[in-house]
Design a protein that fits this description.
heterodimer; A: about 170 residues; alpha+beta; OB fold (Dihydrolipoamide Acetyltransferase, E2P); 3 helices; 6 strands; B: mainly alpha; about 80% helix
């Protein structure tokens, strides 16, 4: 082995060893590196009970209610499996809307309501012009309508055959 | 036989690892890369402000992406390059590799600051906060500290060989942070969204993607030009007493 190759091996082995150490340390700290807990984790008692934590998920469609004082809002946060009710007093970020991902910081109360002190909007990795978004939405609706129509046609034809057979 | 040929090939490449052969090459390359950087930046900025449409959710504020994303990418890529040059310095003992690493570090630190700063300006209108301690933002801040540590360590030691060894070790150790930054959004729950552009999908409209690419290339060209300039200056500073440099500088007049 030339000294050059020897030094290359030393550098590579050193780097590899260090990377393994860092990976192990990060694995050990994994639970502390979570920025937010999902509703499922909260309802499974994985989130801390006695101090503040962050709750992340999607604002459930149709769940947003503004109270008469104009500042208090209530909504449900869902991850598709479980849903947690949230109460918040304050100004919401511009991107906050139903169906949008959010991260709320606050406390889980004894009344099973998450009282948020701060609400942050999470945005997704999709970027497109408004017209494209509209077109996509229209296409989605069209597709859903077609599927529904196809399902209905299948149902009626499936229902039709036994009718005929009983008629004979 | 074959190994001899390979050796020959390697040696013809290694020709430019000597400062004496590298200096005139850098001199010739700098104006081209700087020219390309200026032209691409102007095109990219024009497209950013006048060509690409607003985003369907974020409106116009997303346009800061065309600075933020290239700067963030460069901050990570430059670190990888810097660590690679530090490794080359250790293995081949070429002082030019250390000069390249030193030149890259400053540009890397600047891009890290730009990425953090524009990200913060983007975060306020979209997320509702300037800063959160999520894994992506925290690891990028750590990257800035690694750059600053490298730069100060390299500047603090007078003997250039000892400075190169000490700072090179820091550069190599810190390289594990780069994959952590990149994958932080998939490994942990973060406020920062996931990657829009990966090798197998792009969740971005075509005209937006092209504009982003133009800006990325502009940043690349700028980085190459400015790093070559910095290395050229360091060669002048370190080897001002050598006869070849005196001759070279005489030619330029």
């Amino acid at each position: 082995m030339t000294p050059r190759k020897k030094r290359l091996v030393i550098v590579l082995v050193g780097l590899l060893g260090f990377a393994v150490v860092v990976t192990l340390v990060m694995n050990a700290f994994n639970s502390n590196m979570v920025f937010f807990f999902s509703p499922t984790q909260v309802l499974n008692n994985e989130a801390p009970r006695d101090h503040t934590f962050r709750l992340g998920g999607i604002v459930e469609e149709g769940s947003l209610v503004r109270e008469n004082d104009g500042l208090t809002v209530r909504f449900n946060v869902t991850d598709g499996l479980k849903t947690v009710p949230v109460k918040y007093v304050g100004i919401l970020p511009d991107l906050f809307r139903e169906g949008q991902g959010i991260v709320a910081q606050g406390k889980w109360g004894a009344d099973s309501i998450f009282t948020a002190k701060e609400v942050l909007a999470k945005h997704d990795e999709n970027y497109m012009p408004p017209e494209v978004a509209e077109a996509l939405e229209a296409a989605e609706k069209e597709k859903a309508a077609q599927q529904e129509a196809a399902a209905r046609a299948k149902e009626s034809s499936a229902a039709g055959i036994p009718e005929e057979s009983t008629g004979q | 036989m074959a190994s001899k040929q390979n050796e020959k090939k390697l040696n013809s490449w290694l020709k430019f690892s000597s400062t004496r052969n590298f200096y005139p090459l850098a001199d010739k390359m700098i104006p081209w890369f700087m020219g390309l950087a200026i032209v691409l930046t102007l095109i990219g900025l024009y497209m950013t402000f006048f060509v690409v449409p607003p985003d369907y959710q974020q409106g116009n504020s997303y346009r800061i992406m065309y600075i933020h994303v290239p700067a963030a990418w460069m901050s990570m890529l430059i670190y990888l390059l810097m660590a690679l040059y530090a490794g080359i310095y250790f293995v081949l003992n070429v002082k030019l590799a250390d000069m390249m690493a030193g030149g890259l570090a400053i540009t890397g630190a600047i891009f890290t600051v730009i990425a953090l700063w524009t990200g913060s300006m983007w975060g306020k209108p979209t997320w509702g906060t300037w800063w959160v301690w999520d894994a992506r933002l925290t690891s990028e801040l750590l990257l800035l500290f690694l750059y600053l540590g490298y730069i100060s360590l390299r500047a603090a030691i007078d003997d250039p060989n000892r400075a190169a060894k000490a700072s090179g070790l820091l550069a190599l150790v810190g390289v594990v942070n780069v994959p952590i930054i990149y994958f932080s959004v998939t490994w942990w729950n973060t406020l920062h969204q996931g990657a829009s552009i990966t090798t197998n999908k792009t969740s971005m409209a075509t005209e937006m993607f092209i504009t982003l690419l133009v800006m990325v290339f502009a940043f690349w060209m700028y980085t190459i030009a400015i790093v070559l300039m910095r290395v050229r200056n360091e060669i002048i500073e370190r080897e001002r007493d050598t006869s070849w440099l005196v001759e070279e500088l005489g030619k330029e007049k």
